[in-house]
Specification:
It is built from nine helices and 28 strands. It is an alpha+beta fold. Strands 1-25-21-24-20-19-18-17 form an eight-stranded mixed β-sheet, with no helix packed on it. Strand 19, helix 7 and strand 20 form a beta-alpha-beta unit.
Length: about 550
């Protein structure tokens, strides 16, 4: 009887909402929606231009060992955050001398008021080098990178902080951040921003300006950060590395672009926590086959707090949301550490405390664009079942330089209990935008060319069922693809309660409060979780009433 009342209340809420709204925002309860493709705006300039090193927003404006490139990242729970920053300048050349990280302390003073700041935390420091064993290539060594974890914080609370070494003296100005709400089914961050493939171009500046205007309380960067690997070590760059530099003995990078990016982003990420996802442009191979060195060194990841053996994959809570960050460029099969960790992490999730389960990684599984089409198929084959069986609600990806949102889907089949997949790889980087679709005449890729170069493997075979049986591509926009458009932009997620979240995608060329795509993503725990996992996560009458009152 209780389940029947809950289901009736749930349907009543949505019926009333849809009928009473003058211009109702669609919901996933109305899916599957007819596929929508917005034609490319011919006035849109898809090629982006990188900010030069002479731009004041990327230049070093501190002296000595004063902190710069300051950022905040979350730990696994609301009561802890990481503060990261850099002191000292980088060095680049044929012969380099690394700084000594033990010479500068890693200290954060903080409190709930600007003065006094009664609390102090200490952390660790490191440097990294990008080394190339080839004559004529320039090596790089970073400034001193500091990571300090603050603990014992109160939920949903503003804290003020300064970082640096007070004995030098070299302390930062006063910055502030706000902690996440406590993990309950009633509390959520007000707005969460999602961007992918950001880069450091003039279009990037427009994206970040739009993000900042939306005042998010959390930012997820879905891989491909600064695109330092589109450059040679001498600072010569290109929109297409392999096209312009086909004969280099190793894929080079210009590491100062990382420092430029950190300086440009500081006004936002010194107050808004940023959570990182590894992308293919962070691989950055160097001497001794080392990879991802800059990415792993510059950012804080709550991997140890979430029981992960690697910073490439981890989890954290943001109010009533449990986020899972996965790695598309680390082993992911059932016998691998990532899969084993994922299994344990999903097993620890209590959907009565964190009803929403959101996953993110870089290369998408469900994208209908020609670029990177079915490139991550081996990852999908390995991991889709476990995410579906555990009721993941939404998946966010980047990599494809366009925007696309799916209907709920599982194994290429429409499924009301499958996740909604959202690709936002349109942050503004200097590589070309993704324009052709795999279903456009003459644009279906050769299957043999689809596997990812770094991960290898081949799993993308012709479809064995459905509308495209015996074919590698669809001959029209796939039914799983609900909306797709080529444009720079970002997305905002506003979780309203246990069952309703408002997703809005914003185009850079639009006004700040204009949306390109908008939909309420609605969970149906009484249907899907009970069916798949047996978890008791049923919407009661009180929750149904709360859903109505929140709109």
């Amino acid at each position: 009887m209780g389940l029947l009342v809950a289901s009736i209340g749930f349907l009543l809420v949505n019926t009333i909402f849809i009928v009473l709204s003058e211009n109702p925002i669609p919901t996933t309860l109305q899916e599957p929606s007819d596929p929508v493709t917005i034609p490319l705006d011919t006035s849109f300039k898809g090629n982006a231009v990188d900010l030069p090193d002479t731009d004041p927003r990327v230049q070093r404006n501190v002296t000595g060992f004063e902190p710069e490139q300051i950022s905040v990242s979350l730990s696994s729970t609301y009561d802890s955050v990481w503060i990261s920053w850099i002191t000292g300048d980088f060095e680049i050349g044929g012969t380099i001398k690394p700084l000594d990280p033990t010479k500068v302390a890693s200290i954060v003073t903080y409190g709930r008021l600007r003065f006094p700041m009664p609390y102090k935390a200490t952390g660790e420091s490191l440097i990294y080098s990008q080394l190339y064993p080839f004559h004529g290539l320039l090596n790089y060594t970073s400034g001193i990178i500091h990571h300090v974890r603050l603990k014992g914080l109160k939920p949903d609370t503003i804290y003020y902080y300064r970082c640096g070494d007070p004995s030098t003296p070299a302390m930062s100005n006063i910055h502030r951040f706000k902690t996440m709400p406590a993990s309950t089914p009633k509390s959520y961050p007000r707005r969460i921003a999602f961007v992918g493939d950001l880069g450091l171009t003039y279009n990037t500046t427009s994206t970040i300006d739009h993000v900042t205007k939306n005042e998010p309380e959390l930012l997820l960067l879905l891989g491909d950060v600064c695109y330092a690997n589109l450059y040679l070590t001498n600072g010569t760059g290109s929109d297409c590395y392999s096209c312009s530099f086909p004969d280099t003995p190793i894929h080079e990078s210009y590491q100062p672009r990382w420092d430029y990016w950190g300086r440009f982003m500081q006004p936002l990420i010194s107050k808004t926590p940023i959570m990182m996802v590894q992308g293919n442009h962070e691989i950055e191979e160097q001497a001794e086959n080392r990879t991802f060195v800059s990415y792993n060194s510059r950012f804080s990841f709550p991997f140890q707090e979430s029981g992960s053996p690697s910073p490439f994959y981890y989890s954290f809570n943001a109010g009533g949301i449990h986020f899972i960050i996965l790695a598309g460029y680390a082993p992911y099969n059932k016998s691998d550490n990532q899969y084993e960790w994922l299994q344990k992490d999903l097993g620890s999730v209590n959907r009565n405390i964190t009803p929403w389960l959101i996953a993110a990684w870089h290369p998408p599984w469900y994208s209908s664009y020609e670029a990177h089409y079915r490139e991550a198929e081996c990852m999908r084959v390995a991991m889709e079942d476990i995410l579906y069986d555990n009721g993941v609600d939404i998946v966010f990806n980047g990599h494809v330089h366009a925007y696309e949102r799916s209907n709920r889907v599982y194994n290429y089949t429409l499924d009301p209990c499958g996740p909604v997949y959202i690709t936002v790889g349109d942050g503004g980087n200097r590589e070309k935008m993704a324009i052709p679709h795999a279903d456009d005449p003459g644009h279906c890729p050769d299957a043999s060319m689809t596997p990812d170069d770094f991960m290898g493997g081949f799993c993308a075979f012709n479809f064995t069922s459905g509308p495209s049986i015996d074919n590698f591509c669809w001959d029209k926009q796939p039914e799983y693809s609900a909306y797709r458009e080529t444009s720079f932009g970002h997305g905002i997620l506003e979780v309203k309660n246990e069952t309703h979240a408002l997703w809005t995608w914003h185009r850079n060329q639009d006004m700040y409060h204009t949306s390109g795509d908008q939909i309420y993503i609605v969970r149906q725990p009484e249907k899907c979780l009970r069916q798949k996992t047996g978890i008791s996560d049923v919407l009661d009458t009180e929750t149904a009433n709360a859903s109505l009152s929140s709109y």
